[in-house]
């Protein structure tokens, strides 16, 4: 590596993310994001959830234009790229294969190295993405990160860029999955998270009480809460078939508040037990208004230093993959062509 490259000015990483239903490409100069282009897939809305086969097909259509747009926006040509970083997993196999195959083909044709990135590490390290002209604040190590998305709910102790330990995790549904199911039960579209968030802002979070999980340690469970919501609603609908429409705001607010309370309770216990007060948030559910408000509240009450990502870095995006890719590039941690995608993993 040349001195200039160590200076991080000349390292350009193209990153590709295709683990679920967002096709995303980003160009990083070192740890600074130059572009981050994402094509979302509206097709799944009509099915009430991601249909894996349709997601793969949409990735195939989107990947070339998204990569071209990311390079163009960054003002970088393919020949200037130092490496290609890509999400190797976890995620949907068909979706991952599109990004992985594209990354392999492009890296081989350009004769540059590939860097494999774990999608979950990407979410957790999204706090370290820098942007030109934007003030940046990243947590010091070690910190705790609540990683809440459609597929995962974990409390992670982050010791360094590479060293992460899962302190607690869901034993069944993820928080985002539970919120999406709550929206589906009420007859709303997919993804339900933003819909529940919007409705909840006008509702009373104390209007209904749903049963909360009693799981030992720092683990989570959301399937019982979902069932409690379903049974409560079934009973209410028999009394008035228009019940949901009349009470949707209170229902959404009460369900959302219970999810947030469960998430924060274990996070607080983990923070206390591990004596760590630097607390980050990541994953798609970190866009949630009530969860962000709870972070601010705990920060005031318990003197936490909180780190909440920008909205653009909460959901799936390639910049977070590029950031991890950059750190691995600096260590010469490259990946060979024979590495397959993987669907499930721990950190
Ligand atoms: O991280 P992400 O984009 O995808 C993965 O699952 O990897 O997270 C998507 C999840 C979905 O469950 C979606 O409903 C939820 O994040 N979500 C929200 C909000 N925005 C997205 N949940 C609650 N409130 C939101 N504002």
Describe this structure in words.
By secondary structure, the protein is an alpha/beta fold. The protein is 43% helix and 18% strand. The protein has ten helices and eleven strands. The strands form two sheets. Strands 5-4-1-2-3-6 form a six-stranded mixed sheet, sandwiched between helices. Strands 9-8-7-10-11 form a five-stranded mixed sheet, sandwiched between helices. Helix 3 (93-110) links the parallel strand 4 and strand 5. The longest helix has 32 residues, at 243-274. The mean pLDDT is 94. 5'-O-[(R)-(carboxyoxy)(hydroxy)phosphoryl]adenosine binds next to helix 5 and helix 6.
Fill in the keyword field for this structure:
18% strand; 6-stranded mixed β-sheet; 347 residues; 10 helices
Main beta sheet: 6 strands, mixed
> Could you spell the SSE succession in H and E letters?
HEEEHEHEHEEEEHHHHEHEH
The total of helices stands at 10
Contiguous low-pLDDT stretches (5 residues minimum) are: none
Category by helix and strand content: alpha/beta
Which range best describes the helical content: under 10%, 10-25%, 25-40%, 40-55%, 55-70% or over 70%? Answer: 40-55%
> Approximately what portion of the residues adopt beta-strand conformation?
15-25%
How many beta-strand runs?
11
Shape: globular
Tell me the quaternary state: single chain
Small molecules in complex:
5'-O-[(R)-(carboxyoxy)(hydroxy)phosphoryl]adenosine
Mean pLDDT: 94
Radius of gyration: 21 Å
Distance between the ends: 28 Å
> Strand arrangement, largest sheet?
5-4-1-2-3-6
């Amino acid at each position: 590596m040349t001195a200039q490259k160590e200076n991080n000015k000349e390292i350009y990483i193209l990153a590709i993310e295709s683990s679920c239903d967002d096709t995303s490409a980003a160009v990083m100069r070192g740890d600074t994001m130059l572009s981050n282009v994402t094509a979302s897939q509206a097709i799944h809305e009509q099915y009430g959830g991601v249909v894996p086969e349709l997601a793969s097909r949409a990735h195939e259509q989107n990947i070339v234009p998204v990569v071209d747009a990311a390079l163009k926006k960054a003002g970088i040509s393919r020949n200037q790229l130092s490496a290609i970083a890509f999400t190797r997993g976890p995620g949907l196999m068909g979706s991952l294969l599109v990004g992985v195959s594209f990354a392999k083909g492009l890296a081989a044709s350009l004769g540059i190295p590939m860097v494999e990135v774990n999608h979950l590490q990407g979410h957790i390290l999204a706090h370290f993405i820098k942007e030109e002209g934007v003030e940046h604040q990243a947590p010091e190590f070690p910190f705790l990160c609540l990683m809440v998305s459609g597929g995962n709910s974990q409390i992670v102790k982050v010791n360094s860029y590479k060293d992460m330990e899962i302190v607690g995790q869901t034993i069944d549904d993820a928080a985002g999955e539970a919120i999406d199911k709550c929206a589906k039960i009420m007859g709303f579209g997919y993804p339900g998270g933003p819909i529940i968030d919007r409705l909840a802002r006008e509702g009373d979070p104390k209007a209904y009480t749903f049963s909360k999980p009693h799981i030992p340690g720092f683990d989570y469970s959301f399937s019982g809460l979902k069932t409690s919501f379903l049974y409560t609603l079934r009973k209410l609908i028999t009394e008035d078939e228009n019940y949901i429409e009349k009470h949707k705001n209170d229902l959404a607010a009460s369900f959302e508040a219970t999810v947030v309370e469960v998430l924060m309770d274990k996070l607080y216990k983990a923070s206390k037990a591990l004596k760590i007060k630097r607390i980050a948030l990541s994953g798609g559910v970190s866009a949630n208004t009530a969860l962000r408000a709870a972070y601010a509240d705990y920060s005031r009450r318990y003197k936490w230093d909180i780190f909440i990502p920008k909205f653009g870095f909460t959901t799936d995006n390639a910049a977070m993959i590029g950031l991890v890719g950059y750190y691995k590039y600096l260590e010469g941690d490259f990946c060979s062509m024979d590495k397959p995608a993987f669907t499930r993993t721990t950190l």
